[in-house]
Fold these 2 entries.
Entry 1:
Amino acid sequence: MVRKAVEQRSRVLLVLVGLVFAVLAGRLAQLQLLETERFQTLARENRVRLIPIVAPRGEIFDRQGQKLVGNRPVYTVSLVYLGQRDLHAVVEGLAAILGQSAAEIEAKITERALRLFEPVKIARGVPMEVVTQIEERREELPGVVIDAEPVREYPYGALAAHVLGYVREISGPELAANREKGYRPGDLFGKDGLEKTFEEYLRGKDGAREVEVDALARPVRDLGRRPPQPGNNLVLTLDARVQEAAERALAEAVNAARRAGHRDARGGAVVVEDVRTGGIVAMASYPTYDPTVFTSYLSESQARELFSNSDRLMLNRAIAAGYPPGSTFKMVVAAAGLEAQKIDPEAAVPDPGYFPLGNQTFRDWKPGGHGRVDLRRAIQVSCDVYFWRLGLAVGIEEIARVAREFGLDRATGIELPGETGGVVPTPEYKYALVKKSLDRQYKPKLEEIEARYASLLGQTRDPETRRQLETEKQKEIDRVLARYNSHSWDLQWQTYDTLNTAIGQGYNLYTPLQLANYVAAIANGGYLWKPYLVQRIVGPDGQVVKEFTPQLLARVNVRPETLAVIREGMALVTQGEGTAAGIFWGFPVPVAGKTGTAEVHGKEDHSLFVAFAPADDPQVAVAVVVEHAGHGSAVAAPVAREVLKAYFGLE
Amino acid sequence: MGRKYLKNLDLTLLVTALSIVLFGLVAISSATHATAAQGEDPFGFVKKQVLWVVLGLVVLWAVQSFDYRDLSRYAVWLYVANLIMLAGVLLVGSTRLGAQRWFALGPFMLQPSEFSKVIMIVTLASLLAKREGQLLRLRDLLLPMAFTAAPMLLILKQPDLGTALVLTAILLGMLYMAGARPSHLAGLVLTGLVVIGGALWAHVRYGTWIPLKEYQVVRLLIFLDPWQDWQGAGYHVIQSQIAIGSGGPWGRGLYNGSQNQLNFLPEQHTDFIFSVVGEELGFAGALVLLTLYFILLYRGIRIAAQARDTMGVLIATGVVSMLAFHILVNIGMTVGIMPVTGVPLPLFSYGGSAMLTNMAALGLLLNVYRRQQRIIF
């Protein structure tokens, strides 16, 4: 053994070892001395989670202070990203317990792929049994977090569902549109009704909890807390008692009508409006739904039942469905006649029970007629012949003008989503409507001819044949156009259109809200108020955030005397020979009203009733529509009576 | 025993090693007490490790007590026994974490590949000592290489890439001290690196065949860019660097590192124990540990340089190579400059087989030290 060589080589070995240690120490210095801050931030991000505390939404109260919409805590299940690989197993386990599909859960996770450190909400409104199951299987379900969160509670159940609307998890497009307002996936969002319109007020400001978690995202200790800020409360013009009465009476009327053999009687609406302000006291739509279903997981079939039901449960018929007004329109014609000074309200004319027009005869609803009628009596007994004559005398333009004065041609602007305007019939409207349907009918025929000849012409080059084909084609086109043009008479406004319009048939279409507002304007002497539902927005501290005062849309350009005569006629409807006299017999408050029966092509008539009360000092206007339920006085008027009973506190 | 015995004992080496072991026990207690499940003894791991340390000291005493020179007589038998043991584990061993590495012995899991390292040091030393001065030609290196390759292939089959690489390091260190030409060795290392690197590159780039499982390839390469798969393969590496980096100069305090205590660190009592030191005791603590290791290796090299004969030189060199390689690869892995190969930190990581092996290795060093020639001038 050469000692010297060994010693030399061992020195080299020592240098090599020293080098290794120098490299390691250098790297340690880099990580621990130079990049400390960066790694300390990363370590903090690892262990500190911001868990949002969902703020309760504002509550909704009726005019008496009764809570219509509140909040209650429910369990939610969320999944926190763990930086672990076997997420799939957790998702599968969770899906099995929750009864959702794994794909659905995974979709929610991917949706949030960019915000890994926030929990992903998987289910809301989870029942206690499920919570227990999850707790029992904690070990297999790392990252699954159970929290309490407020959801909507409805002390009155389905009451006023269409007005209040509902909340549900925010959708992709809504999120995209509201990103800058700080919405996150999984947040609740007003989808319909006042919940939607007043979303920005009702929504609270979420708080947060800073929590230290371990590697399995299990909270270890609380580091801090920012309390959530509840949303603002709404105080409505609605009166829960009247609303209840309206909904109950409407449902009973619809069901009674159906039991009585009116097969298509499935829906209806009631609007009760304060004639002095435009404040809506009650607004009912039938059939209805229970918004509570949206507070927990909604299965596919439940959602389908709600949204594509043939009875259109979700539709607020009071504002979004147009009905022909039937005889409730006669006050418009009466006003037009009086304004145009075509009639003397005191002059009585004989009613033979029919009205001849050319070779046609229009028959009154009452065979044999009503004897001698003046304007008041014509309203009282709903004399068709009187209004046919009057309608012809004033003409369609004047009728339409007065209808517009009462706001019947446009949406009222109530603070609810989905309101539609009405249709006031005019010659232009008819022309456009009929032409559209004619075009729809004839355009395909012309196109078919073009296509057919194009292919025939493509098959031949012989100029003689081609010329022949061109001629034949032109002939065919001419024949179709001739037929099209033969309809020109249908496009024109005809006398019978005026007659139909005069008794509220034909092209007339109005929402129950429009009818109520129109009757209110008659009752209050010509003030067309903007109907509204929210009187006040109140902060969680009780401070008034916003106050809503009555808003005048327009003064109805009709003389007060005209309206007075019409009111007198309407007051007679519930008396003596009036069409609703039997129904209001003995009613302690004088009621002015008007029945209506709207013919519907191919189906049974809609039953309508409009009213205001007290007749001598009007406070409220009521409009009732019951679909396909037959005669007005029989079905709709009793609903109005029940509503007024509740309004005046009678029983 | 008595004075003479103590005089022939390398106290510095022994005290340093015991300091490392004690330091390790503290780190293990921090790494395991918080994560112990409800009702479990929070110091269970420490107690078991203490047991292994005591057993290891017995082994150390035993190994240093007889004359290492006698070992060359049994070298062949040792070598054959090693091969049988390694083959045996492939046939009847228990599988854990996808590798067949363990013999289940009652409640303990013994890892023969650990012991094979020490056996290789002894048998290779015996082989090379006989060929002193006959390693100058490249083809002279073939026999020792083949000699090492046999157990290495068996270990690779388990698969245990880390240990196989340790054997390579031992071989290289011992060949160098035995007189092989440095240029030959450097050439071999370079060729090996190029071949392995090229094979890996071709595999990743063109999907060519490679004698490794896919997860091994991923683990080998992930340290280059752990963030590309920070939730998966890169997770360990990143969490370890976060732990060490966030420790800063003075550390976050013993038992107080969030990465360790909240379990973000994986394998924090075994392969990634150094990250616990880095996080909780900072650069200062890490440097203390590095210094202790350096003293240990320095003493080892000194023993090699002053050994009585070639076999002694080679045994000491083998032990030093083994320890140095372990330290480099383990700490390098935790700081992100070495691939993840599952090599524990000697005398420090939790684990019985490794503790026994390292104690035996220290025993070999002490053995060589005891019998060095005292040259009296």
Entry 2:
Amino acid sequence: MTSPATASARSTTPRPPEPSKTKETLVWIGLLVLFGGAVVLSNARWSEISGIFTDGWRYLQLMAEGLFQNPFSEPYSEYWTLAFDRMLESVYMAWVGTLLGAVLSIPMGFLAARNVSGPVTVQVTRIVLNAIRAVPELVFAIILMLPIFGFGPVAGAIALGVGAIGTLGKLTAEALEGIDPGPVEAAKASGAGRFSILRWAYWSQVLPEVIAFWLYRFEINIRASAVLGVIGAGGIGSLLGQLFSRREWEQIGITLVVIIVVTILVDSISGGIRHHIISGSGQKVTTEEKVEATL
Amino acid sequence: MTVTSTTSPHGASAPVRPKKPAPSPLLIGGLVLAAIFTWWAAREIEFTLGDLFTNFANGWVVIQQFLEPNWSFIWRVWDAWVETISISIVATCVGVLAGLVFAFMASRVTNRSGWLYRATKIFLSIVRSLPDIAYVLIFVALVGVGALAGILALIIFNIGIAAKLTAETIDAVEAGPIEAADAAGASTVGRSRWAVMPQILPNYLSYCLYIFELNIRSSVVIGIAGGGGIGQVLGVQFARFQYENVAAITVALFVVVLLIDQLSQFLRRRVV
């Protein structure tokens, strides 16, 4: 009777006690209280949520009607070309803005890298970059657009460009700080000048990563340009704003489809180039994840 | 001549400098294309920096107003601040929970059904391709101007981001625990919950905090389109040309974003 019991006790170690769950429970309770408080304090009229099911279905039908009309008949052909033209305008705005921000972010990146510039310069540049990052593009647009450039895509492009300096400068600086010091020493040992070192030892090493950042920013700026359009910077955002205020659901459906198709197309081209550049440079793909988390 | 010099002992000690590799045609083609596209884009939107110099005085007037913010205005719109934070909390909570489910459906590791995986991927890339402002406009049309439209728009937006980031993390989990769960005959939900979830939890929590930050940042956009919160106040003041109030809110928003960044960095260090 006793011998099999001891044998089984020897072969199976006793199950360790479960760790305490008090902390976990407290965190859950805290989150629930936070969520409940937020639901009440948000002043949302929760009863209106039924509108999604009543109006939503009707609007969806109207949008589908617009989509399934013959796209070559009037006025639908006009809707398609207008949406497409405005979407291209947004893409152009995003491209020019990103390029502008990219060019301006290069010197900022060098000034903010600890292994390139002095500590004072680094601190000052970082503060400037952080300030730019914290101000939404919309505010740049408000300051720049109305008074200086007037309504239109130029103001939008410049607002996107200024906004891009913050993140691109920060990422460039971080990439510069992460380089392999070997080539820098080699260049110094062979008597290279300061500019040559920066150009051939620093810049060459970070170029693939930095270009990937630029392209990623371009993808983000296409979406951001829509926001600027709503307050008058042209492009697809302006069209969307007008259509929604007039509730032209047939045309809205067409416009949304154009946005989706063009965005996915541009994203996949740009994403393909990014993957090609990063994998060709022999760097780890983790940079990709880093970018997505920072931008 | 060259043959003799390379074979001589003198030539061996100082080897000939290798030829510079020719730039790849792909690179040249790409650069030319990019340059043409830039030129075309700039022409299409009539890009010019000339206005910066001719109209700078106009801008300076506005900037001067910006430099004298009306600080008391920040406290007068206290309710709008609470509303913005509440909108972000509700939208983040709901969005990341739904996003988690979609993330499990959008990874080959956890989704064993081929067609459902592909359908989820397509659905998510459509969700992500629309800008946040489009969602706000849609929901304002459906449920009217106010915080509810903002919350619903942000939820959809958050699902897209949370699902993408988490699905990529799921793709990279270690296979060991999953094999163990499979060997023990775990169900699809069971293996996701007990073999995958513990592995991705730290990253997932960090994405949740990131999404919360993002929502606070986008409160301006949400509000201007009619989604409630501080952005709506900003939109009204902007339309009335009250730049001193706009400036005060901008500065305060800057501080709020900074504080929330710090808070979430502190929390992230504790969970990751």
